[in-house]
Amino acid sequence: MTEAQSLLRLQEIDLELIRLRKTVESHPARKRLASAEAAQKKVASQLSKIVGARKDVEIEIDDNTASRHKMEALVGECQEKSVEEGLDFKAIKALEQQLGALAKQLEKLEFQRRGLDEKLERAMVAEKNARDLSAKIEAEKRSIAAELKDDLGSVRERVQKLSGERETITSQLDASTLARYDAAAKRFHGLAVERLEGNKPSACRVALQPSSFADIQRGGDVTECPYCRRILVVREV
């Protein structure tokens, strides 16, 4: 393969790779997959908040339980003292008042506990729903990924084959030629090489002046277009 043929084939490969990448990027399932991933991130953020709230409620419940045990222990102590012999009226009255205060505190703690239990139940339901939704989204992502794999399997195989051929061609071009090609491909969105058709380059279509045309014809097989600065193939063979 001549240098001219290599450059033309390299451009064909790169243009096809661009088309194939656009095919992959524009596949409808990719948009659905992106939406599923965004939804999963949102659910994960909500789940983190729900778990944090559930743990806070559990800490409050533990504190409530500890306070109740403490109050119940004090009630037991007061009840034991109340049956002791030799207590005067004033001591008995003080114990009764203390028991009454403790009973009110226990009633308040019991009321708080009922509210905390309801709060914990709501948090656990919300956590379960969030985990179920996350699992559902994950299953949907796997399904979409499988669909993409099936639909784009042939495209990926083609990309792999073309990439291998591209590597072979670029290894046969000298560094300066490849650098010129890469710069032109970047500048012209893949259209780095053009053919001379008559006295006009195939891409820019600007007719060469007779003197320029004569100079190019006397030159090598590959040169540079004097107008657009693309690589210009004068003769392929």
How would you describe the overall organization of this protein?
The protein is mainly alpha-helical. Helices cover 78% and strands 5% of the residues. Strands 2-1-4-3 form a 4-stranded mixed sheet. Strand 1 and strand 2 form a beta hairpin. Helix 1 runs antiparallel to helix 3 and helix 2 runs antiparallel to helix 3. It is rod-shaped and about 135 Å long. The model has no long low-confidence stretch (mean pLDDT 93).
Helicity level = over 70%
Report the radius of gyration as a whole number of Å.
41 Å
Structural class: mainly alpha
- Uncertain segments of ≥5 residues (pLDDT<50)? none
Please state the overall shape, judged from the principal axes of the Cα atoms: rod-shaped
Q: How many β-strand runs?
A: 4
Number of helices: 5
Write the layout of secondary structure elements.
Blueprint lengths: L2 H23 L2 H55 L6 H84 L2 H13 L5 E5 L2 E2 L8 H9 L3 E3 L6 E3 L4
Parallel strand pairs: 1-4
Antiparallel strand pairs: 1-2, 3-4
Helix pairs in contact: 1-3, 2-3
